[in-house]
Structure formats: C-alpha cells, structure tokens
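Re: the 65-residue chain
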Amino acid sequence: MSPEEITQRLELLRIEHRDLDAAIIALGEGAMVDQLQLARFKKRKLRLRDEIAWCEDQLLPDIIA
C-alpha cells in the first residue's frame, strides 16, 4: 500500500471508530440495552483501534536510536 492509500484508509477507520463510539453511547442510553449488540460494537471498536495503530505505524518509520 502506498502512503496515500494508508492515509485514506486511516481516515475511514477513524470515522468508523467515531461512529461506533456514538452508537455505543446511544445503545447504552436506551431503556432496553441489547448486551450482545453492545459487546459486538465494542469488539469491533477494539479491532478498528488496532488497525488504526497499524496504519499509523506504517506511516511513521521506526527510528532506532
């Protein structure tokens, strides 16, 4: 992947992460909380965070001091 593709993917992942955050908050505020759906959203959010970290690592080179 080129740096431009990684940057675009990173932006999409961040948007999805924010959307999931809003969905988790909205779902948690309801009278009947669907615990299974809430757990799925949280698990997906963690996977997105890992993928965001990977993309950021690809864009920033490791510097060995």
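The mean pLDDT is 91.
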